[in-house]
Amino acid sequence: MSSQLPSNRVWDQAEALIVEIEQASQRSMNHGEQSFYDLATGRLASFSQASGVTLWCLDGGTIRSLATNPGLSASETPLPTPSSTSPANTPQETWSSTASAETGCQSQPGNASLAELQVVLHLHTDVVLALTARWNRNGEKFLEGTTERSIVADLFKATLELLSVHYLRHQFSHFRYQSSQIVRREQAISSLYQGKTLTESFQHIAATVAIEGRADRVLLATVSSRGSRLITSASDTPIDRRSRQAVLLESLLDAAKPFQDEIVFTVGSIDSIHRSNNPTPWGEQLDRYLGESGSRKIQIEFVRTVPNHGEPIAAIITEWFILPEEPIDQSFRKSVHEAVRVALARNTSVWNSLKHPLSSVSSKRKAVFTALALFALIFVLIAVPAQLTIPVEGRVVPENHRRLFASADSVVTDIFIRTGEAVAKGQRLVQLRSVAIDLREEQLRGELSSARTRLASLGASRNGSRQSDPGRSDELSISSDEETLKTELLGLEKQLALVEEQKRQLMIVSPIDGIADRWDLMQTLTMRPVVQGQYLLDVYAPTQTWVAELEMPDQHVKYLPYGANGVVQGDVRFRLQSHPDREYRAVIRDVAQSAHVDHQGRSLVRLKCQFTPIDTGSIAIGATVWADVECGYRPLGFVWFRGLFEWLERQSWY
After folding, report:
1. What is the three-class DSSP state of 260?
2. Quick check: 548 and 586 in contact, CB under 8 A?
3. How many CB atoms within 10 Å of residue 415?
4. What whole-number percentage of the chain has pLDDT above 70?
5. Which is deepest, 148, 182, 308, 353, by most CB within 10 Å?
6. What is the dihedral of CA 118, 121, 125, 126, to 10 degrees?
7. Bridge partners, 634 (sequence order)
8. How many CB atoms lie under 10 A from the CB of residue 499?
9. In a 3-state reduction of DSSP, which class is residue 522?
10. Does residue 227 have a pLDDT over 70?
C-alpha cells in the first residue's frame, strides 16, 4: 500500500513546518514560552496525524509535562542510553509499539497503526528533554512507508532542538530571577545594619521596611518602663515629639505593650467591627491615633529582648494610606527585629552609663570639672611628645638598575633574550634596524666611492698633462680640484664613521651583569617600530640592596630631621601595596635638591631610601609602596593638628 502523500511533498511540508516553528520561536520571546510549546506540539500532531504529542522533561529524576496535545500524558518509558558512537547533545529517536486502545491486544512489531516515537535530547547529566508521539489507526497510512517514518523522526528531532533553546532560555531566566531576588534580599538585610548612632540606624531600618513592605510611613520607637519614645521615621525629617500625632502614638504604645506582641488593624474590616463589639484596653488610643493620622491600615510590632520572650524594648509602626497587596514575609521580619536589637545594643556605651551620675552634679562643680579637664588636655597636647610621620607614596627598585631605551627611530628585528633570563655585561639583548640610517650609509658610501673615482681621474689627468705639455696652466686647476676632493673625502669618511657608530648603537647590549626584565617583552617589541628614547627593557643586578624612591610634597621637606653635618638622619617605614601585611624599614640616603611637578600639578621632592629585604623574590620591580617618613618627635598637639598649623602658616595675617 502506498503512502498517503508523496515523499517529496512530505519533505516540503516538513521543512515549511520547521520554518513556521522557528518563526514562532522568535515571536515567543515576547509572548511567553508556554504558548510556543503548545503551538509546536499542536502543529506536530496535526502534521504527523498523531493521536497525541507531548513535550516533557526529566529534571533531577522528576518528570514534568511542558505541553500536551491533545491529551497524552508524559511518557514513563525508560529513556534510551546515549550511544557512544553518536555525537554529544544530539537528539536520539526510538520507535516502539504500544497496546491497541480498541482491541486491548499488544501490537506486533512493524504494526504502524500503534506506533510510538520518542525523541530524547540530553541537556545535562540529570536534565533530559523529550518529545513523545503516539499514533492510532488514523495514522496507519501516513506511517506505513519507511520514508515517512524517517521524515517524521527528523522533523521531531529538529523541533526538539528548537524547543531545547527555549527551555534553556526559560530556565536561565528563572534562575537569574531567583539570583536577583537573593541579591536584593541580601542588600536589604545589609541596609538594616547601617548607621553609627541609634537615630541613623533606626532611620535605615525604617527606610528598608518601607521599601520592602511598600508602606507609606514607618516609625521606630524605643519602649521601656519609663515610657515609649519615638526616635525616627523612614524620611530624613526629624520627629517633633510635642506634636499631637506623636503624643497619641506614644500613648498607644504605652497602653498596648503589656497586652500585645503585634497589632494589625485595617479600617472598615471585619476585625474592626469585631473589636468595636469587644473593646480592648488600647482600643480607644488606637481610634484616636487613626483619626489623627488618617491611615487605612496600621501594623505595630513590639521587639523584645529575646525573640518571643522578655520585655519589649522597641516598636515598629508601619502605616498604609492605600491597602497593600501583600505583607512582608516573616523571615525578613525576623531580620528586622534582630537589626533593632543590634542597634539598641550598640547604642549602650560608657557615655550612656555616665550620663545619669553627671546629671546629679551641680552646675558650679560641672564648670570646675570642665575647666580642669580642659587644662589637663592642653597640658597633654603641649608637654607630651609624639612621633611625627609624613605619609608618602613611591616605588621600589634594585639599587643597581639600568633602563634601556631605543637609540633611534627604528624597527625591532631580533630579541636575543627572554624575560627573567640572566645576562652578562656586553651581551646582545635587542637588535634594531633603521631604514633611514641604512639609506644614509648607502648614500655616503656611494658619494665616497664617486669622490675617490674623481680623485683618481684627476691624478691621471695631471700625469698626462705633464708628459704632453709640462708648462700648461691646467695643472694648477687640477691640483686645486684634487685638494677640494680630498677635503670632501675626509668629510664623507667622518660622516660614514658617525653613521657606522649609530648603526652599532642599534645593537642594544647589557650594560651590567644582571637579569633582563619586561613582562611583555616578546609581545610588545617583536617586529614593532620604536622611536628614539622609547623604553625597551630593564636590566637589574640581583643584589640584596634595594632603593625605595619616595615622593614627598615640598611643603613637608622642612620636617625632615637633619644632623649636625647637614645630612638627613631619618628612617622610613613602608608597606607594599601587593603585600600590605609586611612592613619594611629603610634609611634615607639622599634628598633631591630640586622639586618636580607631577601630572596632578603637585610639587614633589624625591627621597632615596636604602633597605635590604629578607626575601627579594616577593618584591616586584617598580612596586608601589605606602610609606611613613619618621620626622622625629614633636608635641602631641602639633602632631594631631598639623593641618591646622600649616593652614595658619599660609595666612598673610599670621
Report:
1. coil
2. yes
3. 19
4. 82
5. 148
6. -50
7. 386
8. 21
9. helix
10. yes
pLDDT, mean over the chain: 80
Residue corresponding to grid cell 550612656: 352
Mention every residue, 6+ apart, whose C-beta is less than 8 A from residue 515: 420, 421, 422, 423, 539, 540, 541, 542
User: Which pLDDT band, with edges at 50, 70 and 90, does 529 fall under?
Assistant: very high
The rounded distance, in Å, linking the Cα atoms of 446 and 442 is 6
Looking at the DSSP bridge assignments, the partners of residue 515 are 422, 540
Q: What is the 3-state secondary structure (H, E, C) of 377-415?
A: HHHHHHHCEEEEEEEEEEEEEECCEEEEECCCCEEEEEE
Spatial CA neighbour of 75 closest among 103, 92, 52, 45: 52
Query: Helix, strand, or coil here: 593?
Result: coil
Q: pLDDT tens digit string along 150-190?
A: 888 888 888 888 888 888 888 888 888 888 888 888 888 88
Residue range 21-37: average pLDDT? 69
pLDDT in tens, 320-341: 988 776 666 667 888 888 899 8
- Mean pLDDT across the stretch 45-58? 84
With a cut of 90, say whether residue 546 has pLDDT above it: no
Cis peptide before 70 (omega within 30 of 0): yes
For residues 94 and 117, give the distance between their C-alpha atoms in angstroms, rounded to a whole number: 6
Separation in Å, CA 541 to CA 513, 545, 581: 6, 10, 27
Q: What is the H or E stretch that residue 319 is in?
A: strand 309-320
Give residue for cell 633570563.
Answer: 421
Q: Which residues contact 128 (CB under 8 A, 6 or more apart)?
A: 57, 58, 59, 79, 120, 121, 122
| Residues 260-281: tens digit of each pLDDT | 778 888 887 766 555 555 667 7
Strand order in the sheet with 401-405: 401-405, 535-540, 514-517, 422-423
DSSP assigned state of 144? S
Beta strand ranges found along 501-562 (DSSP E): 507-509, 514-517, 529-530, 535-540, 546-553
Tell me the residue type at 529.
P
Find cell 532611620 and name the residue: 203
Report CA 245 to chain centroid distance, whole Å: 47
Residue type, 252: L
Q: Cα separation of 16 and 14, whole Å? A: 5
Dist. CA 163–CA 37, nearest whole Å: 7
Model-level pTM? Answer: 0.42
**Buried residues in 373-409 as b, exposed as e (16+ CB within 10 A):** eeeeeeeebeeeeeebbbebebbbbbbbbeebebbbb
- The residue type found at 125 is T
- Judge residue 482's burial from the number of C-beta atoms within 10 Å of its C-beta, 0-12 exposed, 13-18 middle, 19 or more buried: middle
Q: How far apart, in whole angstroms, are the C-alpha atoms of residue 566 and residue 552?
A: 19
Residue 239 is given by DSSP the state P
pLDDT > 90: percent of the chain: 13
CA distance linking residue 157 with residue 149, whole number of Å: 12
* pLDDT grade for 627, boundaries at 50, 70 and 90: very high
Element (H, E) at 132: strand 127-134
How is 327-369 classified by DSSP, letter by letter? PPPHHHHHHHHHHHHHHHHHH--HHHHHHHHHHTS-HHHHHHH
Q: Which helix (H) or strand (E) holds 39?
A: helix 33-48
Rounded to an integer, what distance in angstroms lies between the CA atom of residue 425 and that of residue 201?
A: 66
